[in-house]
Every structure is written in structure tokens, then in C-alpha cells.
Design a protein that fits this description.
This protein is α/β, with parallel strands linked by helices. It contains 8 helices and 16 strands.
């Protein structure tokens, strides 16, 4: 909005999130034909709960790189109809499955069926038709499965939200909503620190890619912005020293059937507000300094803030937070809304945590100027 522009050396307020979720991804040469079924070969992307992908109606989505004149173009594809299914073995042929648990060999047991005959030209021709291009113009593709079941408000009191990809699209929604609210709030107010939202890919596989949090994409963008506003390298380094990043990723809510997996003094409950995430071994980026930013932001927004810590005898997952903190040397804090069934094909969260999450992230962007 109008008002004085921030100095090139001003510290930034940034929210980081990630767009990817664990799933099954189609192999480059996927066509299989066995026992009267047409199948497609898949790889497991990320730390998926693979059993959750059994007996679900699956669609396909992703991108196709195609020849476009003398260049290359991207075609986005989304097939929301029930197209594939990973069928579980009948209990009659796996009698003790309920006692020992489902055991799945990723190479042998996860190939979905998608008909009783292969389409003419195979998967590649089918994909070319969906992308509306000639098959010889398909140069590469990244296609993943997704659950076709729509999101649903759940419970007798409508207090829960069930959906695929809550981790981490809820954070993406909250971050974009926070950015819009912060811009509107600052409009005509005389400016403030630069603010940004960055949504990375590949968090679920370690962030070590050109579009992942361990890349130089964010630092390069900040440095280019500073250069465009008349600053130099020293301004860039000064800006980083006073910047704050909120790594927004979903948190583990206490599971009522598995309370032995919860740190008893840090029980995070759904519909009781977002959680500050702390780990002594830096699997989360939060430290005392960055925690203070989020605590103050929650107070300004009137949002109840919980605190998540893993049990000392259970390993902790990670987020984009440590990668961003390492890449930029910026004060970084990890925060997220609590949920159950993380990394399942379909997860669960409290519906009343969504809006407070957005308000908290808005307060982070606005800082002490709110």
C-alpha cells in the first residue's frame, strides 16, 4: 500500500510453508499387465502411511512437460474421477493380518489397478490425451495419485475437519490469508518491514532441491529486492540479521487412543489453538529468541498458543525451519496447527484451529506495528 517504503536494510517478516504431501507417484514407464488387470507402477513419495492408500478411489494430478514450438511448456493435469485403486488382499488369504498388522512390500503390493485392459498406447498416450498434446510431444511428467474423497466437516458438533493433504495445505491457506490481511491492515499506514510468504516443494523428501527450503531461492529473492531498492550486499546482510521467519507446518495433536506417545506435560489438543514447536536437538528451528516472537504475536492476536515437544524416547520429525535457518542465518520459529493421522492419505484436525492459525500468522507479519 501507500506510505514510506522500507529501507533496504530493514528486517523482513516471512512465513514459510510447503506445498507437497506424501503420496504415490507414477514411474516413468509404468505400464503393467498381470492376472487380467492393467496396472501402473508407482513409487512412494515421502514418509507416507502406505496402508492408508489401500482401497481408496484415486485420481491423478501433476504436470507434463511438452514440446511447444522451439521451446518447452508445462501442462497441468488433474483427473478427479476414480481412476486407480490399490486393492488390499482379502482376509481369507491373510488370516492373521489383524494380529500382526498390514505388511506391504512397496515394489510388490502397491501397484494400483486401473482397468482390465491397458489403454491404446499405454499410460503415456492416456496422459498425452489428458494434456491435450500429441504423445510424441510429451518430454517428461511428474504425476501423483490423490484421494478423490472430498473434504468433510465431521462430528456431531461439526468440530472436526477431515481431508487429504491437511499437512501442509492448511498452513499454505493460513499463510496466504495472513499475507492478504497484513497488506490490507498496512494499507495507508505508513509502511512497515518487508513481508513475504514462501511456499516450498519437496519438504517431505528433505528439501534438498532447487525448489526446496535448502535452496538459495529465498535468499536470492531478498537480495534482488534489496538491489532493486538501491541497497547492496551490506544491506542484505543487515536485513537478514534482523529478520524473522515463521516456519508454518502442521503439529501432532494428542491421539486419544495412543496417549503413551504424548509428552504428558506438552499435550497439544485439537481446537485449543496452534502450537509452538520445540526440539532440543534442533529438528525444529525454534530457540528462546524466536519463540519470543511467536509468543508476542499470539498475545497481540488474542490467540491461545500451545507448546509441542516430542517424548524424549521418540524421534522427532522436522520441517523447513532448520533448512531456512541454516541457509539464511535468520531467527526462525516453528509453529503449526494440531492434527491426527499425519502423512495418511486422509487426515483429521480441529476446525476451530484454522482461523486462529491465520490470525497468528497475520500477527507475525505485522510484528509490533499491529
Amino acid at each position: 500500500g501507500p506510505g514510506s517504503a522500507p529501507r533496504p536494510s530493514s528486517g523482513w517478516r516471512i512465513i514459510g510453508a510447503h506445498t507437497d504431501s506424501p503420496n504415490l507417484r507414477i514411474k516413468p514407464r509404468p505400464d503393467l499387465s498381470r492376472a487380467g488387470f492393467a496396472q501402473v507402477g508407482v513409487d512412494v513419495y515421502g514418509g507416507a502411511l502406505v496402508n492408508s492408500w489401500l482401497d481408496r478411489d484415486l485420481g491423478l494430478s501433476g504436470r507434463v512437460q511438452v514440446r511447444d514450438g522451439a521451446g518447452v511448456a508445462t501442462r497441468l493435469v488433474r483427473v478427479d474421477e476414480a481412476t486407480l485403486r490399490v486393492a488390499q488382499l482379502a482376509i481369507h488369504l491373510d488370516r492373521d493380518v489383524n494380529e500382526r498388522g498390514v505388511q506391504l512390500d512397496r515394489q510388490l503390493h502397491l501397484s494400483p489397478v486401473w482397468g482390465t485392459s491397458s489403454p491404446a498406447g499405454g499410460f503415456r498416450q492416456w496422459l498425452a490425451d489428458k494434456a491435450a498434446v500429441a504423445v510424441e510431444d510429451v518430454l517428461g511428467f511428474e504425476i501423483m495419485t490423490h484421494d478423490c474423497t472430498r473434504a468433510a466437516v465431521l462430528g456431531h458438533d461439526a468440530s472436526l475437519l477431515a481431508s487429504a493433504r491437511l499437512d501442509n495445505l492448511v498452513s499454505c491457506w493460513a499463510a496466504v490469508g495472513a499475507l492478504l490481511a497484513a497488506v490490507e491492515s498496512r494499507d495507508g499506514s505508513g509502511g512497515g518491514p518487508p513481508i513475504a510468504v514462501v511456499m516450498y516443494d519437496h519438504e517431505e523428501v528433505g528439501s534438498q532441491t532447487a525448489t526446496g527450503a535448502a535452496s538459495t531461492a529465498l535468499s536470492a529473492t531478498i537480495e534482488r529486492w534489496i538491489a532493486a531498492h538501491g541497497g547492496g550486499r551490506s544491506d542484505f546482510l543487515a536485513a537478514l540479521s534482523s529478520s524473522v521467519v515463521a516456519s508454518a507446518d502442521m503439529a501432532h495433536g494428542a491421539h486419544p487412543n495412543y496417549l503413551d506417545r504424548v509428552e504428558p506435560e506438552h499435550m497439544v489438543v485439537v481446537n485449543q489453538g496452534p502450537a509452538l514447536k520445540i526440539n532440543a536437538n534442533a529438528r525444529y528451528a525454534t530457540d528462546a529468541l524466536s519463540a519470543a516472537h511467536i509468543v508476542e504475536a499470539a498475545e497481540r492476536a488474542g490467540v491461545r498458543l500451545q507448546t509441542f515437544v516430542s517424548r524424549s524416547n521418540l524421534p522427532c520429525g522436522s520441517t523447513i525451519g532448520p533448512a531456512v535457518a541454516t541457509q539464511l542465518g535468520v531467527s526462525t520459529v516453528d509453529v503449526g496447527a494440531p492434527m491426527l493421522s499425519m502423512h495418511s492419505a486422509r487426515a483429521l484436525m480441529g476446525i476451530h484451529d484454522v482461523e486462529p492459525y491465520r490470525r497468528l500468522l497475520t500477527s507475525v507479519l505485522l510484528g509490533s506495528t499491529q
